[in-house]
Amino acid sequence: MSSPTNLAYNVLWFGHPVLQATVATAMLHRKLHRTFPVFFTYVMAQLVIFGVTYPIYRSGNYGLFFYAYWIGSAMSVLLGFKVIHEVFLDVFRPYHTLKDLGTVLFRWAGLVMLLVAIVVAISSPSGQQSPLIQATLTTQRCVRMIQCGLVLFLLVFSRYLGISWKQHSFGISLGFGGFASIELALVAFRVGGFVSQQNLDLLNMGAYNVAILVWFAYFMRKSPAREASTTLFQSQRWEQSLTDITHPATPDSLIPLFESMVDRALSRTNGAPAAMAEPELPPSAKAKAFAAGFGSRELRSKT
Fold first, then answer.
1. 3-state SS string over the chain?
2. Confidence (pTM)
3. Is residue 173 in some structural domain?
4. Per-residue pLDDT tens for 18-44?
5. Domain that holds residue 263
């Protein structure tokens, strides 16, 4: 690296913990670490990872830095996936059944990503990158795709769920989704040979700093309450429909109706006057009433 490029690289890299510390301070000040504990853990983990990897990088021990960097990247990917789950739980907080469904889908998505990462790591040729790098990169790109999808989901369904773009959960998704889209675009440009690895690293680090600034801007302002509009009735119908599917209601019993019909039939056979004419019953109801009456008469004869 040339001197200006090396200076820009260090400034951008050192800017990560500085900005992340401001985000953590803002969350502690507004007590948002209780609302988003996984995201707060993610921010603190990034501070710890920088505190471990940067001194190793400055010492010149590149072999140790290689393992420290990729292990930290793997931890960041896993925590980033958990942050997406936390955002979904916050979005579906009023809808318990939809929240349970989202949890199940995230577990399956995590299992699929893990299997894909293992298969890619095992099937990669021995002359290429190590299995740790292959697995980490594959999982990272899967998580980036999900983060982009999370932003699109909130943009499309925000009016159905009462989510405003000013809310904290939307800000977390916007930061991750914007950074993920830029990173995926840079990877595509790198594969096509349109950008060098050095420029890719600089642009990627700059995009991550912008994402941290987005989080800081959102956490410095108060999140508005959920919108209560008529469009929420549709999401409530989704919730009710899913609840009816998972927990079907027990149908009302017909035994009291049959008992009353049997009692009236027995009173007629005993010569009791009827107060009014009984309505004509359909054949199926007559057959059920006769069967119930026959069983009732046998029970009375035995007693």
1. CCHHHHHHHHHHHHHHHHHHHHHHHHHHHCCCCCCCHHHHHHHHHHHHHHHHHHHHHHHCCHHHHHHHHHHHHHHHHHHHHHHHHHHHHHHCCCCHHHHHHHHHHHHHHHHHHHHHHHHHHHHCCCCCCCHHHHHHHHHHHHHHHHHHHHHHHHHHHHHHHCCCCCCHHHHHHHHHHHHHHHHHHHHHHHHCCCCCHHHHHHHHHHHHHHHHHHHHHHHCCCCCCCCCCCCHHHHHHHHHHHHHHHCCCCCCCCHHHHHHHHHHHHHHHCCCCCCCCCCCCCHHHHHHHHHHHHHHHHHHHHC
2. 0.69
3. yes
4. 999 999 999 999 899 999 999 999 999
5. 255-302
